[in-house]
Amino acid sequence: TGAGSGLGRLFALEFARRRALLVLWDINTQSNEETAGMVRHIYREMAEQAAAAAPGVAGDGEKDVVPHCNLQVYTYTCDVGKRENVYLTAERVRKEVGEVSVLVNNAGVVSGHHLLECPDELIERTMMVNCHAHFWVT
């Protein structure tokens, strides 16, 4: 979650380098797609490197084989602060991708206000995204 920027984007890129099939969620469709583009670029580079290092013969006569990977990235626009949106998106992921084995529950908001100056709506939004959403997504 929160894959469109910041730590969420950095986590996505690092998991891509480790050959993970990724499911990226963010409230911002455009930034989520930008992250997916960066992930696809990493996947293409790895595929090119694997092709360039075509299987050779190791010193013991065994072939060095680069494991075949079907690396993919899926994007979903989801407001994790809205429980029903989380549940609907999770169901789509189960149908379209399958079960999730690792969850990086990263989405979060920061108000930028001192507590006593923060409007109630922003406090509620912060709690929904930074607290409740972690339970719903999990």
Automatic annotation (TrEMBL):
**Recorded family membership:** Belongs to the short-chain dehydrogenases/reductases (SDR) family.
Q: Which domain of life is it from?
A: Eukaryota
UniProt KW Oxidoreductase keyword: yes
Q: Tell me which InterPro entries the record gives.
A: NAD(P)-bd_dom_sf, SDR_fam
Cite a single GO MF annotation.
oxidoreductase activity, acting on the CH-OH group of donors, NAD or NADP as acceptor
Gene3D superfamilies to which the protein is assigned, alphabetical? NAD(P)-binding Rossmann-like Domain (3.40.50.720)
Name a GO CC annotation attached to this entry. Answer: lipid droplet
Q: Name one Pfam family in it.
A: adh_short
Q: What is this protein called?
A: RDH10 dehydrogenase
Q: Give the transmembrane ranges.
A: none
Q: Keywords in UniProt for this one?
A: Oxidoreductase
